[in-house]
Structure formats: C-alpha cells, structure tokens
Amino acid sequence: VSDSEFDIIQRWFARDQEHRDGLLLGVGDDAAVLECRGRIAVCVDTLVADVHFPASAPADAIGHRALAVNLSDIAAMAARPRWCTLTLTMPQADEGWLDSFTEAFFALAREHGTRLVGGDLSRGPLSVTVQVIGEVGENWLRRSGARPGDDIYITGTPGDSAAGLAVMRDGTADKSAAHAALVARFLRPVPRVQEGLALAGLASSAIDVSDGLLADLGHICNASGCAAVVDVEQLPLSESLLSVCGTDAARQHALAGGDDYELCFTASPERAAEIEQALAALSTPVQRIGEIQSGSGVVATLAGKAFEPPIRGYTHF
Ligand SMILES: [Mg+2]
Predict the structure, then answer these.
(1) Distance from the CA of 76 to the center of ligand 1, in angstroms?
(2) DSSP string, 222-239
(3) How far is the CA of 71 from the centre of ligand 1 (A)?
(4) Residue 72 Cα, ligand 1 centroid: separation in angstroms?
C-alpha cells in the first residue's frame, strides 16, 4: 500500500473535507485541527479479521461495522458524534473492496454527522481501527450511576446479531427471510446514537451491548457497586430470532450473544413515563427487563428460578 498511500487517500478517503462545523483542517496534513467548545468524549475500537468478523465478510459490512461499533460506544455516553479517524491495515489495495468499504463507511458517517478527519493506511492482515470524537452536554451517561431499585431496560431486540453470526457460519443465510434478517443484524448493526442523546438526564447508567447482555450489565453492576436481576420472560425477542432458533436458543442468544449494539440502561422508576415517551418519539422499542438490587452480580430468573445460559458472554482474549 505504501507506494500509493497518498493516491489511495485522495481517491477514497479525502471526502467531506469542507471547512465547516468545527473542521479547520482535515485529511492530508500531519494532523487534523478541530474546534470544539466544552466537553468531548473519545473512544476507539479495533476490528481484526477472523477475530471480530469473518475475513470473508462483505467490504461494505466491514466499513459500516467499524464505524457503527464506535458510534455505539459514543451513544452509550449520551455523546453527539462529530469527528472520526480511521486506521486501515489491508493485505492489498483492491479497488472494488475499497469502493464498497468507503461507500458504507461514509454513508453511516453522514447519517450521524460524523466527519473523517484523519487516519493511517498500511499493508498487513486486515484490521480496521476507528476512533470517534463526540461532544457531551451536562448530563452525559456512564456505567457507574445505577442504584438499587432502578429499572433495567434494553432497546431493540437483543440476540439477533449472535444468531445472525451463527447463521452465517452454518451457511444458511439464504434459507428464509428471517435467516437473512438475522445476518443483516450482525453485518449492519444500528448504533443507537439518537437514543443515547435522548436518555441524557433520564437514565442513571448506560452501556452498549457488545459482549452480551448479562456480561455488559455485569459491567454496570461492577461500576455501580450493585446487583441486577433480569426477568427472562421480559426479554424482547424478535420474530426472526424466535422462528429461526426457537425460544430456548433465542433466550440464550439474547442473554449471552454479543454484537447487539443495543443500549442497556438503568433508570429510577419515576422516570419510566419520560423514557417511554423519549424512545417512542424515535420509534425505538424499549423494554424493562429487570431491576437493580443491592449486592453484586447479575442473575437471570425464569418463573422465579435462576436461569443460567450455558455461556454468559464473549471475551476477546
Ligand atoms: Mg461499549
């Protein structure tokens, strides 16, 4: 890549570089210069081929996903994404691959008002690192604010993405519309950016579900010094998930499957009506799935008894 790095950047990555909205200098110099007022939130995430996604995944899905997972982290802070950087390591500069990758990346970036301001390219095994810089207001969210008595909520329908990955691995993606829908949920996760912003000042804590609902709720409990009880019967399971997997496997995926990029958050019961209204205004499904209690750890219960999924979550190492 190195010989033509400049050409590749000019052709595929130097887009949306107008000097507006705080972008004083973007792609093409030694560093970007940004103008911001107030607090910023910064996150970064690396996706490695065959660790975080199959190397054979379509280039557009990789481009979408690399940005989406970072926007999801920004969403969990109730931050507004503004800028991003991209480090791309790839085995060779394939024109078709770069076309698809950048098309999807910039489409999602535009959708969320996020502009690419810099990055790096090199040759090697496929890996994509994206950093997003966002702005936060007074009421930004964190993992540590949950209190005993708070309700626990989840947006959307968890478990679809893990089931979609399983479907891809089985090679059954074309079997039915439901199979295809699950695969799409894995390949093109939807970051809940507007939802995160809407929850500022309403939620007491938040996290985006990347490792699995129980595992990520465990991070909230650890950070907040409390326990969580999830009612398995309240889990919002999609029609696609139920029809492809059946109830037992659907519950397993919803509790332990990773890569949902839904928001799991807690809030005082007094906020219930406002939360319902705020998310209804965005047409985003939200479901109360349990309660924060004093103590430590996360348990799932079904009909009053402990329900233990065989695997709790995904760990990268
Ligand atoms: Mg996260």
Answers:
(1) 7
(2) HHHT-EEEEEGGG----H
(3) 9
(4) 7
Q: Which residues pair with 265 in a beta bridge?
A: 153, 206
**Cα 98 to ligand 1 centre (Å):** 27
72 alpha-carbon distance from chain centroid: 4
Count CA within 13 A, CB hemisphere, residue 58: 14
Average pLDDT rounded to a whole number, residues 33-37:
91
Query: How many angstroms does the Cα of residue 190 sit away from the middle of ligand 1?
Result: 14
Decide if pLDDT at 159 tops 90: yes
Instruction: Give 279 Cα–ligand 1 centroid separation in angstroms.
Output: 20
Q: What one-letter code names the amino acid at 297?
A: G
Alpha-helical (H) ranges within the chain are 5-8, 59-76, 95-111, 160-170, 177-187, 193-199, 213-224, 239-256, 272-280
**The pLDDT value given to residue 279:** 98
Distance 210 CA to ligand 1 centre (A): 6
The Å distance, Cα 155 to ligand 1 centre, comes to 15
pTM of the predicted protein model: 0.93
Is the separation of the CB atoms in 115 and 82 below 8 Å? yes
Burial degree of 170 (CB within 10 A; 0-12, 13-18, 19+):
exposed
Residue 228, strand partner residues: 292, 298
Average pLDDT of the segment spanning 113-123 = 94
Q: Give the 3-state secondary structure of residue 33.
A: strand
What is the C-alpha separation between 167 and 185, in angstroms, rounded?
11
| Residue 14 buriedness (CB in 10 A; 0-12 / 13-18 / 19+) | middle
